[in-house]
Structure formats: C-alpha cells, structure tokens
Amino acid sequence: MIKRGIYGVEYFPTRQNDRQSGGLGCFVAAVAALVLVSLAWTLFSRLTDGEDEQPPRPAEPPPKPAAVVVAEPPAVVRPPPPPPPDEELRTDFGKRPPQVRNLLMRLEEAESKSDVEMAITTIEALRALPGSPAADLDDSLARRLGALNLRRLFELKSAQWVKQVEVKRGDSASRIAAENGSTLASLARLNGGRDISKLLVGEKVNVMDHPRFRMVLHRRTRLADLSLNGKFFRRYDLEGDVAGSPGAYEVKLPVRAFWSSIGAGFKGVDRAEIETLIPKGASVIISEL
After folding, report:
1. pTM (predicted TM-score)
2. What average pLDDT score do residues 212-238 get?
C-alpha cells in the first residue's frame, strides 16, 4: 500500500505479499537443501567406491624367453657286418684278402639259401687258394664241409656217389652192398633206415656206387681225414696216440678189431659213422704229421 509518511510517500507491503515472499523463500531453501544432499551423496559415494577399489597391481615383467636347446643329431649306428654262416667261421671280413672275403660272403649266401652244392664248392675253393690265405679257418672249413658231404650223401643221395639198383631173385641186402663195394649199414641208411632184411623182387633200392674211401691218420695233430673218390670227405678227432707204425694199411674184418690193432681210437658216434662208411678193403694211412 502507498501512503504518505513522515518521509513522504512510502510503500507499505500487505500480508498477501508477505505470504508470497515467504513461500518463495521456502522453495529456495528446499532446492538448496536438495542440492546439498545431492552433493553430499555424491561425495559419500566416491569415498565408498575409493575404499572398494584395489590398488593397481604393478605390471609383471615379461617372461624370459626359454633357452633354445639345440638337440644333437642322433649318432649314426651302422649295423655290424653279417657274420659268416657257421659260428666257428666268424671272422672280420674287412681284414681278409678280397678273394677270401668274396668266397666267405658267397658261403654265407649259400648257407642262407640252404644250397648244399654251392656251399661245398665254395669251401673247396677256399681251401684250395694258393698260399693258404684262409689257413686259420681251415679246420672249421673242413668240419663244415664234412657235415655238408654227409648231408649230400644220405639226405640228397647225390648221383655222383649213389645209384639205384633193382632187386632180383636171390638178392639180399648184404649181397647188394658187397657187389657195389659198400656196407650193409650205409645201404640201410640210404633207404631211410628201414628193415632191409626182406627185399621184394623188382624193388629199387639206393646203394653207394663202388666208393673209394681212404683215411689218413695224423699222429701229431691227432686228426683223421677221410676222402672219397680222391676228394676230402670228412674230418674226425683221434682219441689218444696212434700206436701203429707209419705206413699204409687195408681195412679188415672185423672192423673194430682192425682199428684196435693199429691203436686208432675214436669217439663212439664217430666210430659208428666210420664203420657205416668204410667197407672192407679200404685204405688207411698212418702219417707222422
């Protein structure tokens, strides 16, 4: 309201204006309070979040590169040279003369193929080399050759030593063996060891064809070498000293009594084999060597 006052015209607010002014103040105060509360909440939230957060971990150093290990190449293992076919003939091929080495390799091949003829001819060639470059192997070669010769005779029935004859009326096993210069024991063995006491007329049997056996008894070395038709056949060991004088003898019956008379002793198995092979009249030589 406008009134004249002591200082002139003056303005005097009414109660309604007072009320409006008071309402505005309350509003302003409320807004300020909200702002303060919002600020306080924001500050509180930041403080709380700061406590929950973990301090950043220091960065781990990068792993060291693994040491590179260079693997050494595996050692080259070369297979040993193949051994000779017989244990007694084991030798170093590389230290042999080429001719001996080639024949030993040929013998090994023959043994692997079970080729009896090839093995026999190879051993004979080895033993016949000029100058005897395989002399240290000669005894082993001789014994191997003897085993092969027995197989060629009794298993393979080589045609150079064995023939077939037809049993005729009146023939007997002992008669057939005698007529062909052989022994009854070899006749039985050549025919599978069967009973040959009863032969059938017309039957064919195997028999040695007039074999020419000769045995040389070496007194010094105590070895006995048996040859057949002029070629080495088999080697045996003598037991004890030979009592007979050096010279030539002829096998007589009974055979065991003959060997005893010249003081030639053999192992049981060898004696039986010799008696199977050597017929009456075969030549025996006693040598001082």
Report:
1. 0.68
2. 97
